[in-house]
Write a structure and sequence with these properties.
By secondary structure, the chain is mostly helical. It contains five helices and two strands; from the N terminus they run ααααββα.
């Protein structure tokens, strides 16, 4: 009887449309890099000048930032070619509006933070090796541009913190409270 009920229940549950596998992989790679870059930033700015670890951490931070920028660009192209699975019937208007706005803002910070970080190099001294593979050149000296990059980067960090917390809270809400399968869209199909 339990097997019959279970089979009947799964037969009537709407199929979950998922992001394409490449979009899933880029999402989880971006998430892992975001969770790496933040503590690296905290440590690198806390170290005193002259510490040998500090320039290495700055290089890693910047290399991850460039990687996140490239991943965000790839994700946007992929999103254009393979639109997100529809949320029709899964979310109300306000939930859909908030989800859309938070995703747009997440993409915006994934672009703005690396760009503003690179603008900081307009102080004329901050070229860096991209994971030791090649050197990313600094911009020509422009104090106004470097200052603008610093301001955007400092303000952007708070946007990153807030958007990550919002994204995690929304995920927890959909998994633990609503149990509506929204997270399944970003996961490969599960057997069984």
């Amino acid at each position: 009887m339990t097997a019959i009920l279970h089979a009947d229940h799964t037969r009537h549950r709407p199929a979950v449309r998922r992001y394409v596998a490449a979009a899933q992989a880029l999402h989880w790679l971006s998430a892992a890099l975001m969770f790496a870059i933040i503590p690296i930033a905290w440590v690198m700015v806390s170290l005193p000048d002259g510490t040998t670890l500090r320039p290495m951490l700055y290089g890693i931070h910047k290399s991850i930032g460039v990687t996140l920028f490239a991943l965000a660009a790839a994700r946007l192209v992929l999103r254009w070619r393979h639109p997100a699975p529809s949320l029709v019937g899964r979310l109300g208007y306000w939930e859909w509006t908030l989800a859309t706005a938070s995703h747009v803002l997440l993409y915006a910070v994934l672009i703005a933070m690396p760009v503003s970080g690179y603008l900081i190099s307009a102080d004329g001294v901050h070229s860096f090796p991209f994971f030791g593979l090649f050197t990313v050149p600094h911009l020509p000296k422009n104090e106004m541009l470097a200052h603008l990059g610093e301001r955007i980067h400092l303000l952007g960090q708070w946007a990153v913190y807030g958007l990550i917390l919002l994204h995690l809270a929304a995920t927890a809400w959909h998994v633990a409270v609503r149990r509506d399968g929204i997270l399944d869209r970003m996961l490969p199909p599960q057997d069984g």
